[in-house]
Design a protein that fits this description.
2 domains, 13 strands, 352 residues, alpha+beta, 8-stranded antiparallel β-sheet
Length: 352
């Protein structure tokens, strides 16, 4: 019994070690060697994320680790963040990336680079690399150390897909899941009115229109009805209803989406950008169609078919039985189907 329990314990311990190893940064790669290693726990998150700790926690922080690598005179600080799901890791990835970063093509992962910083996102993981001397090949090798999730577990948010692409500042969209990150990026609108507690998601992006940087805030709600209700509340906000020129916020709803234009030079510019939001409502009428079993005509046809089949079977059975009796009577010396001639008939004699 003890041996069996020990085997089970070591088996599950091996599985836990194997899973943790899959998500670990390598000890060395491409001539880079580890200088220091520190695990990141929830209790020590502020020591590693600094003022961004509440943001990282809001995106669903689970665990992490940080390694410093050295290669000659070059130094790299690599942080591996693990979120609860791909939605959270994508949000953190967009929060950290900045306009001007270049997209690095990868197999499945998303990666950007700019200056002395690299960001890689795949599944629930984000790798934040800071330092100089890292080549594209070495960065792609680090990306291979991130466990590849199943396709069903690597579903990215669809809200950013609704953003207009024309005049969009590259790498500017930031996906938001809660008020903490929202307040870091937007100061004019209070986060309390957005409705993150109702499951709302948001994305904020920058656009270059008429020689000016304009921000588009797109908020997604669970249903169009909820979005319409929130729109009524937004229209009562002073910054929207009676905002000063140059600070007024323009707003429009499309289905479950509510779009805000911030810093627009005028209403025409705001409406032009709002009209480019790539959302189209689709109405599906699921008309009830009766099944074959509920069709009276089909039922009657089936009844006649069944009756015909039964009549045919009866006819074949009768002919077969009659033919068998004739053959038996003709070729067999003793009767099989006929009664003997001396068989007495039971009489009641009621007249006596």
């Amino acid at each position: 019994m003890k041996k069996g329990a020990c085997r089970i314990f070591f088996f599950f311990s091996f599985l836990l070690l194997a899973n943790s190893a899959r998500a670990a940064l390598p000890n060395g790669f491409g001539g880079w060697g580890t200088k220091s290693f520190l695990p990141i726990t929830a209790a020590r998150l502020s020591s590693f994320a600094g003022e961004d700790a509440p943001v990282v926690r809001e995106y669903g922080f689970v665990a992490g680790q940080r390694r410093e690598y050295v290669k000659g005179s070059f130094l790299l600080t690599v942080t591996l963040w693990q979120m609860q799901d791909s939605t959270g890791s994508y949000g953190l990835f967009t929060f950290y990336r900045e306009p001007g970063m270049a997209t690095v093509e990868g197999e499945q992962e998303q990666a950007v680079a700019g200056g002395d910083r690299w960001l890689i996102q795949q599944g629930p993981y984000v790798v934040d690399i800071r330092g100089t001397g890292l080549t594209i090949g070495e960065a792609k090798f680090l990306a291979t150390q991130i466990p590849r999730p199943r396709r069903s577990e690597d579903m990215l948010p669809t809200l950013p897909d609704y953003l207009p692409q024309q005049a969009l500042v590259p790498q500017s969209p930031k996906f938001l899941l809660g008020p903490v990150a929202f307040e870091r990026l937007e100061k004019d609108l209070p986060s309390s009115v957005i409705g993150f507690d109702l499951g709302a998601e948001a994305v904020i992006a920058q656009y270059r229109l008429d020689g000016r940087t304009v921000q588009l805030l797109l908020v997604s709600y669970a249903t169009p009805q909820l979005a319409a209700k929130k729109l009524e509340g937004f229209q009562q906000l002073p910054i929207i209803s009676t905002g000063e020129k140059g600070k007024q916020v323009f707003i429009q709803r499309k289905g479950p989406l509510v779009g805000f234009i911030l810093n627009a030079p005028g209403q025409a510019t705001a409406e032009k950008l709002l009209n480019r939001i790539q959302y189209e409502g689709v109405i599906v009428w699921n008309q009830y169609v009766s099944g074959p079993r509920e069709n009276v005509g089909s039922m009657m046809i089936n009844i006649f078919i069944l009756a015909g089949v039964l009549l045919f079977i009866s006819l074949v059975a009768g002919i077969s039985f009659g033919g068998l009796r004739i053959l038996a009577k003709k070729f067999l010396p003793f009767p099989i189907f006929d009664r003997p001639s001396h068989t007495e008939i039971i009489q009641l004699h009621l007249s006596e």
